[in-house]
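Methods, example record. To illustrate the input and output format used throughout this study, we show the complete record for Putative lipase. The sequence lines were provided to the predictor; the line carrying structure tokens was produced by it.
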Amino acid sequence: MGSLFRRSFGTAVLGSVLALTAALVGAGTSAAQPPLLLPPLLSPPAADAIFPVADPDPFYIQPADVADHAPGEVLKIRQLPPSYYFPGSAMWELLFRTTDSEGRPIAANTTYVLPPNHVPDGPLVSYQHIINSLGNKCKIVTELYTTDPLHQIREAAGLNIALARGWAVALPDHLGPRMAYGAAKLGGQITLDGIRAVQQVPELQVQNSKVGLGGYSGGGMATAWAAALAPSYAPELNIVGAAEGGTPMNLVKMAEALGTNPHPAFGLAMAAALGLEREYPDRIDVSGQLNDQGRWMKQMIGNGCTNEIMLFGIGRSASQMTDNKNFMDDPEAWKVMEENSLELYPGVPTAPIFEWHSPTDALIPVDSIDTTLRRYCDAGTPVQTLLTPTPDHLSAAALGLPQGLDWMDARFRGDPAPSTC
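The corresponding predicted structure is encoded as:
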């Protein structure tokens, strides 16, 4: 029974995460469009490597006594060299205690940026970048210092708008130490504990700061989860608002709409399946259900960043990765998706919400955004929604961000939050 359970669950996850990851990256190509070129399939290695490959930097080694520390407690801190992304700002990195999706103590990291015009206890923003990766080499803090153009974080430069206003910025690696891509609730917990951590260090000058949250798409998912979890998980934080855009709020609906056709963003779908397996090892077995093509794919992307993952997955499908054809048939798979779906999470943010998306975004269930925000409104949370005049997922990101920053500035000033409820 256990073997059958794991087999059907693994294939269910392989199929169900495809719709989720297409939304997380904003792939705009039709799933029915055949690719012009596929990377060749190679013979799989004789034995699977262990993923993710450990970061060689000893800073990330989890202390043996991590369970003895409270969530958000600082385990290690170091000052980083200046980053060319943020001219004139001082940089730190913190390792802190947090909790994974199954309640186990783990260590995670956040990068802290302090602009020269910040005043003590001035505003603090935790911004959750889109990471979409499986390898430790793809952490935000690593990519902030790389000179490899394939691994640079181009959207990071936009944070200089916030830094110019004197806001300190925290950039959590919200996929955690296992690079558990696809585990949305985990991202919320890491985000909140990262805020707790930077507020514990007097030298960082944010001990009593008002806090704002921000992020789009996959980063918006970590942001939205942090806002929803805060009243129960970190009620002491003075979160004055959350600006979240293009947020996937129901993974179940996305899985139901999936299908088994080849997809240009399948690499990220496979990455999410492997990420969920890392986060829920006692509930998900993907690796054990892979055929030769699936094992090859895992080897190619198991420590990869977005570009490698996208390349090796172009035009492939979940049905090619396993010989088990019984997709989407295991109740436990749906339960994991439900546990990571904001629409199905009963908690409600108490901080005001600014939310933006394209009303014709085909990559995420827009009706789930509407339903979730309506529930927040009914509970008394101020919600301002911006529908961007753009048809797709990616362009909405840039169109909503300036208004989101202005909205956040008003929250820091203490102005009453507007609402379109």
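Annotations derived from this record:
The mean pLDDT is 86.
The longest strand covers residues 90-99.
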